[in-house]
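B., you asked whether I could sanity-check this one before it goes into the benchmark set. Here's the sequence:
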Amino acid sequence: MSAAAMDTASLPASSSPTLQLVPANDAEFVQSSIMNAPSWKGPLNLDDYLEREAHLRKTDLNRHGGITAWILVDTVHPPSPKGTRRILASCETLRKRALVARKDGPAVETISHGIGSVYCPEAYRGRGYAQRMLTELAHILDTWQQREGERGDFTVLWSDIGKQFYARLGWTVYPSTHISLSPRSDSDRSQHGVSVQLLGPGDLEELCQNDEILLKSAMAKPTSPDVHVRVALIPDVVTMQWHHAREEFLSMKLCKRYPSRKGALAKTTDGRRAWCVWTRTFGATPQENLLNILRLVVEGEEAIGYRSLEAAMNKNDEATETAIAAILEAAQLEASNWGMTSVQVWNPLPLTVRAAKKVEPSSVIVDRDDESLASLRWHGEMLPASTRVDWIANEKYAWC
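And here's what the prediction gave me:
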């Protein structure tokens, strides 16, 4: 019998009481990264992928316990001489600042977690290990990194395996749409009559602070009867910097260029600012390279994305649409400059869709059904069956 066959022959049942989900040590973090590299390394070779993962752990979002690597192990088997255990399944959680507003109450800051890099080695699949891992993880995250005696409110993840698996485990699928725009060369620039400022790294902190204030204000507004809780991940500057650390690493490795432009800003005719923060996403092939809009904001509560303001979002606002169109066009130009195949805006608001049609009339909303499906699990108090949890600002910046 081969070593591989002997290894799988000794596997425990997923219901075994000897299985335990534990934080990985440093060596096991590397081990799990090597295991999941075929699925998550994209265009990088293994060494560069491991370097990127180590690089991201040093970002402000991930330092000081901001990221936890989890592994499902069988406690019957002792660690190897190198201190590693056999990994049956693995994942990561990222600690994120969040807001929760209960029925007509203020937005209160709390801690949430995003779940990513869910992986089960191919030889171990079909045995229920991933389900066992996530079931245990859900219970751990009820209180993980919360203040003593307190319970977390919600966690999020993005499914790349359709809608059913995570939904069965308690993560409800939320709207997962996007609109795509083609790259645009400088010679195709439209004349919107709006000047656009390209944003650099030093411009983001003030904008993110302002965005947080606007988001808290919007979430404090009265809500519709069927919404019991409103939640949002805070689009703070450390979150944007985490995304930019990814793009900067890949840009330098693959293109030998530093991506200095991080977004664009324009002003409406009545003086309100509209801006977007973007990131370059490099896929496994050049055809999968995208410019993703992480966050799009217009000063004024009607543009925050709060559903109780749906009527305001749907109203005709030519000045706002023109400003959004100008920053979307700046994104198209940047995508062309970097050889990206498209610009993507996740879960665009009606104002954004109308603005997109100003720059590309053929653009349509795509409803994703098998990848990057935004999913949320409520960990807080039992909610009435007739009410729902509303996820505000469900945009690309929240992804991990």
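One thing to flag: The chain has ten helices and 16 strands. Otherwise nothing jumped out at me.
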